[in-house]
C-alpha cells in the first residue's frame, strides 16, 4: 500500500500528474484543488496517497490537504460511490464546501457532480452528515435552519455553492457567477436548490432562442 509519495513533479495534466520517485514515474490522479496546489514542474512535491488495487488496474490518488484525503476515504465508503466519483466531487467543491453541502443536505449541489444521482446523493448525506466535524469545525458557522427558509445558507455561501454546482455541470466560472447573480441570490427565502434551478434556466435561454 502506497500511503505517501515524495519526488520530482515531472508532468501535470487535467486531473492527474506524474511524480518521479526512485527512478519510477507514478501517475497520480488528483482533484482540481490538489492540482492547483502543486508546485512548478521540476520541483519537489509530496502527496498523501490512496493506492486502490483492482483486478484490472492499480490506481493511485494524491492529495495535498489531509482533510481532502479523509473526505475521499469517507466518500468511497458510501455504496455506489467509487474513487472516480469521489474525486469528481472533490474537484467540483472545496472540501469545506462539500462537507457543508452534505451536512446541510444540499442535494442539488451534490447531484450537480457528474455521476452522482439523487439516490446516491441522499445516501451520501445520510451516511456522512454526522462524520464531518473535522472539516466543518474549520469552516463557516452553520446557517440557521428555520421552517420557511430551511436549508438556506448565508448569501456569500449560497453564491459560492450555487456557482460551484454550475461549474461541475460544465459552465465556466464567469457564466455561473453571472447566472447566479441574475437568478436572485439576494432573495434569502430562496433555497439553494431553487437558486441553482433558476440559474440553469437562465443559462438555457440563449440555447433555446437560437434554435
TrEMBL record:
GO molecular function terms attached to this record: ATP binding; four-way junction DNA binding; four-way junction helicase activity
Region (Domain III): 152-211
Region (Domain II): 65-142
Protein name: Holliday junction branch migration complex subunit RuvA
CDD domains in the record: UBA_RuvA_C
Free-text note on domains in this protein's UniProt record: Has three domains with a flexible linker between the domains II and III and assumes an 'L' shape. Domain III is highly mobile and contacts RuvB.
Domain called UBA: residue spans: 154-198
Family per similarity comment: Belongs to the RuvA family.
Domain of life (superkingdom): Bacteria
Function as written in the Swiss-Prot or TrEMBL entry: The RuvA-RuvB-RuvC complex processes Holliday junction (HJ) DNA during genetic recombination and DNA repair, while the RuvA-RuvB complex plays an important role in the rescue of blocked DNA replication forks via replication fork reversal (RFR). RuvA specifically binds to HJ cruciform DNA, conferring on it an open structure. The RuvB hexamer acts as an ATP-dependent pump, pulling dsDNA into and through the RuvAB complex. HJ branch migration allows RuvC to scan DNA until it finds its consensus sequence, where it cleaves and resolves the cruciform DNA.
Matching PROSITE patterns: UBA
Gene3D superfamilies hit by this protein: 5' to 3' exonuclease, C-terminal subdomain, DNA helicase RuvA subunit, C-terminal domain, Nucleic acid-binding proteins
Region (Domain I): 1-64
Cellular localization per UniProt: Cytoplasm
NCBIfam families membership: ruvA
One Gene Ontology CC term in the entry: Holliday junction helicase complex
Keywords for the protein's UniProt record, in alphabetical order: Cytoplasm, DNA damage, DNA recombination, DNA repair, DNA-binding
Quaternary structure, from the entry: Homotetramer. Forms an RuvA(8)-RuvB(12)-Holliday junction (HJ) complex. HJ DNA is sandwiched between 2 RuvA tetramers; dsDNA enters through RuvA and exits via RuvB. An RuvB hexamer assembles on each DNA strand where it exits the tetramer. Each RuvB hexamer is contacted by two RuvA subunits (via domain III) on 2 adjacent RuvB subunits; this complex drives branch migration. In the full resolvosome a probable DNA-RuvA(4)-RuvB(12)-RuvC(2) complex forms which resolves the HJ.
A Pfam family reported for this protein in Swiss-Prot or TrEMBL: RuvA_C
Gene Ontology biological-process entries: DNA recombination; DNA repair
